[in-house]
Amino acid sequence: MRIGPSLLLTSRQALAMTPQLQQAIKLLQFSHLELAAFIQQELEKNPLLAEGAGDDGPVVEIEMPVAEPAGDTAEALAAAAPALAEADDRWTREHADRGGDAMAGRSAARDDAPDALDFVADGPRSLAVHVLEQLELMFKDQAERRIALKLAEGLDEAGYCRLDAAAVAEAVAMDIGIVEAIWKRLRQMEPAGLFSRSVSECLGAQLAERNRLDPAMQALLDNLDLVAAGELGQLRRRCGVDDEDLRDMLAELRTLDPRPGQAFTFEPIQPVAPDLYLTPAKDPETGEEGWHIELNTDALPKVLVDRNYHATLMKGARAKTDRDFVAERFQSANWLVKTLEQRATTILKVAREIVRQQDGFFRHGVSALKPLVLRDIAVATELHESTVSRVTSNKYIATPRGIFELKYFFTSALPARTPGVVVSSESVRSRIRHLVGSENARQPLSDDRIVDLLKDEGIEIARRTVAKYREAMRIPSSSERRRLGRLGMSRQVPGAMPSAALAAQALTGPAD
Q1: Closest-CA residue to 394 (of 284, 276, 491)
Q2: What's the number of CA atoms in the CB half-sphere (13 Å) around residue 41?
Q3: Which pTM does this prediction carry?
Q4: What are the backbone dihedrals phi and psi of residue 261, each rounded to the nearest 5 degrees, phi first?
Q5: Helix (H), strand (E) counts: the chain
Q6: Which end of the chain is more exposed for a tag (fewer CB within 10 A), N or C?
């Protein structure tokens, strides 16, 4: 046998990640706002793309020949799945708690195993999230919650709300007296001073919280212009105090925060526009109760290929470079339109399977939420797990129970006492909230007692897991709740809704 260097000619098939295929994958995970911005850029770059009207209907296939056809998007995405698997290893590790590994979702984790929350540092809280969480606690009536959310939309970076009460009352079709009453309750929100209309009102709320808003301090707040001008003599006379008292009052005034909203990152409250609508429906043949799911066409950009302009350009193109440019733009426009159609079809396909598997949640609430991992949906829809993850990212569905991100329905599993039965971790969180919410404020339930109560209901759970869930839901410890109960400051337990769903809940009501 001859040993030495040689040249061998072999052939093999491999998938090339073309720019068009990369674009199709990228569009899958875009939210509708990101997609609209991307489409706007493409409209500016490609003269053969035209923005369609709402009644244009589906795009008609173009029969004109195209050099080097791009092929079917669905087939390309399906063929790309194996090549994407290696690139998605990082995604699998990041989303293991949401079902990146099917076995991780179906088997119970060890009690001493580290949790993803243990490695996440607390980032700065958004003012919008902070306000929406407290709105959920303060207002249970749907009409009051709607007014409160409208006022919250007027918050500026400093935490002030300078909306006109009459304009708000007209916008929500309510009496101005009710709006003023809701506004007054909002000014009791933590930190004191939020939702104030002026600096004096903001500082007055903080002094009232300290029980220091006496007539002399109120007179000082009413004359802040004299404080800025340094007119101490007039301040003494108007407040009715001597020099020493005035110095103490000014010293206390300097300890207050005239911009309470700057303790948070500022992000204006934006209403969530759903990508899908879910409504109850009856089967016309069997009369069985079911669900009807459809895409929100208002959130889908409508793009068409301008065939007439393409024909005009091809007739006028003399140079080969011009003809190649027009052909390339035409091919790119065709691919984009097909990709958008395939994106809509894939979203609808995944959403239907989620609704089918989580039917109990939509009928009975979060207590009926089933353990679900990405692989379950991937197998049922014959898609890759990474494709399901991209489809469910930043996509929202409007249901009779509120607006939820599609990823909300993926939860890990906890073992039940009955062999072979598992329960959703989200339903366990809901049960913990209900137990704490209905406890005696002066004798709150300890974590050990909650473990015993859950075990009585057939849920096997460790004390460490209860503590982890409680802290993640921002529920104080039993000792802290006992202290608050003695002071008469106990309050309702926050719902564990996604932050994006909190704004929707303010309009639609609680999920269960």
Answers
A1: 276
A2: 6
A3: 0.55
A4: -75, -15
A5: 24, 8
A6: N
Task: For residue 47, give both structure tokens.
Answer: 């003269």
User: Strand 396-399 to strand 276-282: parallel, antiparallel, or no bridges (unpaired)?
Assistant: parallel
Q: Which two tokens stand for residue 324?
A: 């190649």
How far apart CA 29 and CA 18 sit, in angstroms, is 18
**Residue 214 contacts by C-beta under 8 Å, 6 or more apart in sequence?**
none
Q: Cis omega before residue 191 (within 30°)?
A: yes
* pLDDT, one tens digit for every residue, the chain (512 residues): 567 787 878 887 766 666 767 777 888 888 888 888 888 888 888 888 888 765 444 333 333 333 333 344 455 545 555 544 444 554 444 444 444 443 333 333 434 444 433 433 445 567 777 888 778 778 877 788 888 888 888 888 888 888 888 888 888 888 888 889 888 888 888 888 888 888 888 888 888 888 888 888 888 888 888 887 777 888 888 888 888 888 888 888 888 888 888 777 765 555 678 889 999 888 777 778 888 999 888 877 788 888 888 888 888 878 888 888 888 888 888 888 888 888 889 999 999 999 998 888 888 887 788 888 888 899 998 888 888 888 888 889 988 888 888 988 888 777 766 666 677 788 888 888 888 888 887 788 888 888 888 888 888 888 888 888 888 887 888 888 887 676 554 444 544 444 444 334 433 344 44
Taking the CA of residue 110 as centre, how many other CA atoms within 13 Å lie in the half-sphere pointing to its CB? 3
Amino acid at the residue 278: L
For residue 89, give the nearest of 337, 385, 302, 320 by alpha carbon: 385
The identity of residue 220, as a single letter, is L
Question: CB of 291 within 8 A of CB of 279?
Answer: yes
User: Coil, helix or strand for 72?
Assistant: coil
